[in-house]
């Protein structure tokens, strides 16, 4: 095979990821996570996450190389998440990547983690289409992107004005007393509830916002509406059905995400939606986007669940696209960019 072997390194948040990709093919994807250390805090502690990356990086790299049956000398180029993310976590992955690039004398690419959430889709479904609308949703980001070439031409159409979708799910989970992170638990409960039992507001649905924020999201008002509903019911001594609250809340979030993604396709004359990010594991998002894309005659591509969570394969995948497009490697002195757009 003549495609270069790309090593991808991920450390934006609490996952230490190492992936090896050749062209559109995944050789191996290894992840270590420090998630289980945060349950008692109800949120990530950056200092613990940085330390965990430091401990996990070399063993994760070694086991990835072992499993793929390759040695470090076989790697042709290295890609690492340069942002957005926690600065301490990013620093560990970037230092490791710089050290490897220097020792092996290979080109190094500092890449955008969020775009990696879309690039990973090619490892499951084959080459990405020429033009697509990307919907990236996770605990840290909710973005609509107009993608003409994933390596060189990605335009941001809109994003969340306040909370990310996963973040809103985690906050509603906490409100209902569910373990951290609440997203998957709220998803599970929502599957047994009645989506129409409660009508929660859709963010930015008012006429004055409809055009100015056609591709933006807002979930903090919704979260407040859920809190008010739950408190109101408890004060009246009424039984709150967590299943119904989760189902109605999930419907409001996913109604906004999917209707705006479809609208972006229609407005740009694009035929394909690609979703990605930790929240793209959400069962209602996957069903509703399929339903609405079908109704609008659009194709929708979604990564398998194992590629939704942060991973090294997504970073190797975007690295492979940069190499394919002939993009110049990063300046060797680049720094982590925790607020990277
Ligand atoms: O991409 P990711 O692993 O990390 C970030 O970059 O944020 O996403 C994690 C987020 C968390 O907020 C988690 O609660 C949420 O994605 N999440 C879900 C589901 N699975 C993960 N939210 C709703 N439904 C799910 N099934
Ligand atoms: Zn992510």
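-> sequence recovered:
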């Amino acid at each position: 095979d003549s495609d270069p072997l790309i090593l991808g390194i991920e450390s934006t948040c609490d996952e230490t990821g190492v992936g090896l990709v050749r062209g559109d093919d995944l050789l191996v994807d290894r992840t270590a996570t420090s998630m289980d250390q945060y349950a008692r805090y109800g949120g990530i502690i950056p200092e613990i996450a940085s330390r965990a990356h430091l401990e996990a990086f070399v063993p994760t790299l070694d086991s990835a190389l072992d499993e793929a049956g390759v040695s470090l000398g076989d790697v042709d180029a290295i890609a690492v998440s340069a942002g957005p993310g926690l600065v301490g976590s990013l620093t560990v992955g970037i230092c490791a990547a710089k050290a490897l690039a220097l020792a092996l004398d290979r080109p190094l690419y500092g890449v955008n983690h969020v775009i990696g959430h879309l690039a990973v889709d090619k490892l499951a479904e084959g080459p990405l289409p020429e033009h697509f609308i990307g919907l990236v949703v996770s605990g840290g980001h909710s973005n609509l992107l107009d993608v003409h070439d994933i390596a060189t031409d990605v335009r941001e159409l809109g994003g969340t004005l306040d909370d990310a979708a996963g973040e809103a799910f985690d906050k509603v989970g906490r409100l209902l007393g569910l373990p951290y992170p609440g997203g998957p638990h709220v998803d599970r409960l929502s599957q047994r509830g009645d989506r129409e039992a409660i009508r929660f507001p859709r963010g930015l649905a008012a006429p004055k916002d409809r055009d100015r924020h056609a591709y933006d999201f807002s979930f903090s008002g919704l979260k407040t509406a859920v809190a008010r509903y739950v408190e109101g019911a408890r004060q009246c001594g009424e039984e709150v059905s967590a299943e119904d609250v989760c189902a109605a809340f999930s419907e409001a979030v996913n109604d906004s995400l999917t209707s705006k993604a479809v609208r972006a396709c229609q407005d740009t004359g694009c035929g394909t939606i690609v979703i990605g990010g930790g929240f793209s594991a959400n069962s209602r998002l996957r069903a509703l986007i399929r339903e609405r894309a079908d109704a609008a005659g659009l194709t929708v591509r979604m990564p398998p669940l194992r590629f939704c969570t942060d991973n090294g394969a997504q970073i190797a995948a975007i690295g492979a696209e940069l190499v394919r497009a002939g993009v110049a490697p990063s300046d060797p002195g680049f720094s982590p960019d925790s607020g990277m757009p």
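The mean pLDDT is 96.
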